[in-house]
Design the sequence.
């Protein structure tokens, strides 16, 4: 199955929430506004969509949505004349041909935009991003009629536009070994992400070393060892409770000696004592720089999509305690909160290197903004 197919299937909970909501928005009121779009013949009634020239002008404020979190909307459009019921085309009537289902349309007005904005907020896009996306959808469409398919396409386009600047694969530098520090709260998926990255880079012919830097949690170390065996990658460990910075130093020295391409360092994620964690991470960085002044070359923050808006708070915290250079979002399968990725991209602009949609090695994929946007809103391939 293509990754898009898998993504669509796995993002089912997020996309069904959004997709069903979009259908409902259009179905609501559409009984009086159904177009006679039979496909067999042009509609008998004049096209329902108002020509661009007669559509109410969007206020200028909408062109700068950043300055007004509330989407500014145009004046109330004049009520459109009720459309006659869809009538089969002449050829269809003559031959009794089956008429394709009419495409329902809904007027883009204040009420519709409010419902759309609510839907986006409920999909975890966040208030500001939902407002911005809604304002952009209104632009040029206000006062016209839109079908669910068109709305879905428009939304996919807007989401992809927000995601496009941040969709960047993990950069690979000529410098060897490239040191990647992996941070994030416990349970966010750090270990699994390291395992998947190690396997994928190994399969691509890179020499990889893993350092099990969460020396307090024996289970985390064991889990990394399992991934290491699976990927045929050495995992460096230290005695339980020993200094993670000292392990990081040894790991980098060994990675240099072995001519490794990549060193992936797992870290603890106990946010309960932020000061301790900050000092621990700062010490790891200080010690790594004794061996290589440019290390770490990347600091990846791993976020769990199921935490929804909490992921935004985690970015704020980790940006304060570590020099985060990019994000990986895990567990996008099985959550209805996939929209949070759009909020993250919009708010922080940090590169999103990869997304996790399952627990297997190939369930971590580079982040493709268009694929993701289409899967999220339930648009077709
Ligand atoms: N469904 C799903 N589960 C995932 C994904 N990524 C990780 N997990 C699971 O989430 C759980 C936590 O993942 P870990 O990799 O152990 O998380 P961690 O951040 O290393 O957590 P600690 O070891 O507690 O520090 C595990 O059961 C993983 O199998 C994903 O993309 N999808």
Sequence:
């Amino acid at each position: 199955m293509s990754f898009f197919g898998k993504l669509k299937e796995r993002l089912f909970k997020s996309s069904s929430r959004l997709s069903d909501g979009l259908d409902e928005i259009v179905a609501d009121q559409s009984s009086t506004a159904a177009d006679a779009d039979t496909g067999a013949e042009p509609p008998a009634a004049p096209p329902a969509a108002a020509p661009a020239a007669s559509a109410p002008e969007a206020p200028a404020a909408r062109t700068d949505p950043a300055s007004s979190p509330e989407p500014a909307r145009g004046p109330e459009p004049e009520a459109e004349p009720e459309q006659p019921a869809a009538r089969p085309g002449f050829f269809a009537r003559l031959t009794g041909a089956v008429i394709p289902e009419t495409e329902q349309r809904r007027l883009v007005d204040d009420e519709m935009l409010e419902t759309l904005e609510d839907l986006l907020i409920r999909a975890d896009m966040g208030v500001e991003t939902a407002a911005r996306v809604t304002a952009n959808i209104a632009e040029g469409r206000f006062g016209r009629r839109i079908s669910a398919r068109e709305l879905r396409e428009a939304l996919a386009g807007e989401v992809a536009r927000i995601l496009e600047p941040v969709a960047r694969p993990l950069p690979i530098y000529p410098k060897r070994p490239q040191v990647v520090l992996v941070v994030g709260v416990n349970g966010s998926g750090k270990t699994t992400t390291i395992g998947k990255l190690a396997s994928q880079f190994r399969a691509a012919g890179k020499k990889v070393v893993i350092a099990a830097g969460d020396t307090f949690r024996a289970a985390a170390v064991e889990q990394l060892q399992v991934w290491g065996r699976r990927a045929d990658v050495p995992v460096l460990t230290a005695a339980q409770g020993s200094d993670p910075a000292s392990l990081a130093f040894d790991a980098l020295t060994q990675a240099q000696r072995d001519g490794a391409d990549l060193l992936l360092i797992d870290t603890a994620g106990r946010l309960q004592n932020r000061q301790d964690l900050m000092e621990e991470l700062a010490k790891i960085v200080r010690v790594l720089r004794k061996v290589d002044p440019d290390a770490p070359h990347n600091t990846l923050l791993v976020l769990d999509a199921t935490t929804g808006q909490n992921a935004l708070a985690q970015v704020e915290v980790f940006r304060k305690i570590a020099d985060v250079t990019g994000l990986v979002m895990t567990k996008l399968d099985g959550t209805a909160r996939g929209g949070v990725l759009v909020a993250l991209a919009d708010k922080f602009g940090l590169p999103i290197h990869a997304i996790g949609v399952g627990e297997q090695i190939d369930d971590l994929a580079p982040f493709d903004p268009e694929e993701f946007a289409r899967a999220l809103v339930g648009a077709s391939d």
Observations:
- The pocket of guanosine-5'-triphosphate is lined by residues 184, 186-192, 214, 217, 220, 223, 269, 330-331, 333-334, 356-359, 363 (CB under 6 Å).
- The radius of gyration is 26 Å.
- The first helix runs from residue 3 to 10.
